[in-house]
Design brief:
Layout lengths: L2 H40 L3 H29 L1 H18 L6 H29 L5 H30 L1 H6 L2 H11 L6 H13 L5 H7 L1 H34 L5 H29 L1 H22 L5 H12 L1 H11 L4 H14 L1 H17 L2 H22 L17 H6 L7
Amino acid sequence: MTSAKKEKSWVMVVGAILLGLIVDGMDLQMLSLALPSIMKELKLSNVSGGALSTLTLAGMGCGGILAGWLSDRVGRTRVVFWSIVVFSSGTGLIAFCHTFWQIGLIRFLSGFGVAALYSVGLTLAAEYVPAKRRGTILGIMQAGWSLGYVFAGLLSSYILPAIGWRPLFLCAIVPGAITLLMLRGLEDSPSWFAHREERRLAGKKHNEFASIWADKSVRKIFIAWSLTAIALQFGYYGVNTWLPSYMVKELGVNLKNMGWYVASTYAATVIGKIIAGSLTDYFGRRAIWAATSISTAIAIPVIIHYANAGNVAVLMLIFGLLFGAPMGINSTYLAESFPTSVRGTCVATSYNIGRIGSMSSPLMIGYVSTNFSIAYGLALLGIAYAITGIIPALFIRDRMYDPQALRTVEPSPVAENMKMAPEAA
């Protein structure tokens, strides 16, 4: 393959998946924004309304693990293609629902697609993007999810008051269809094809989950990443859930200003992800991961102690740059931690085990906030971010595998230059 063709291939992959991730983020945020209107029209209780979000998370957990395993078996591009079909069409179908169970079933199934694209799409991109640009490019792609949140907010501000919640969900269909057109003709990465050929020539059955547990070095890193993912998602989703309440109830910020402060914080998060991803190309994944995670852990108690209605806007901008930064590094660091033969399974499974943290965080913080204060509840997030930084710093080396490697016995020239380990069979 010529260098020009290689350049065109990875640019097309990145462009298609970036657009898909933006739609992915829109899908998740649309439900949150439309939920009050849905509950009012369908006469749903608070419990039923919350259950719709829980069903989405449950679908994401199951779908992410299944998609990772399938991507090692049948290919990344096939899984990515069908994940977009599932969640974009599912989002559109919500516009025609009239009962809780109709929406709940569609949200559960859509969750499969949402998680599949996030886990497998970024893995595919990591196997295409050149090593010297990987941190920067994947950091930008991670920011695509946050952009989806912003676009959903803008759309809802015009559509919900004017024509209601149903047309809002139809907005996911067009960009989803464009993403599918961009994916047409794209093949799996050369490294995935190389490993498929090796398995065929070996003539042995390959069980990805058994392989993870049988290989001590892979098992150790898999466990470390699973624990890290629980802590990271506990902290990240805890901030998303409780930060607005903290500003209103503890700092006395009015609702109008709170909305602007939260929007500014998310905008800073987009910038923080891109900066963090870029820095990893110069200073290494582990160093920037540890620095941003531990900085966030320190920033949380500082904000709790010093924030007031007058300075919270500035503090939230600084905090926005920090707390999403590990997410901007996550896909690159993860993809380079596992060999191609089990990369999809390891990346998707370890990350989706982390949903234990995302689902338990709002409940635990809510319990502590009820018995003490929201400030004490948010202090738990500082502990979570400290754990997020410490585990990889101690146990997960930088650039262990080259996602573009074609050989499993000897390291590729890129791997040698990057001091990566050779791909393990």
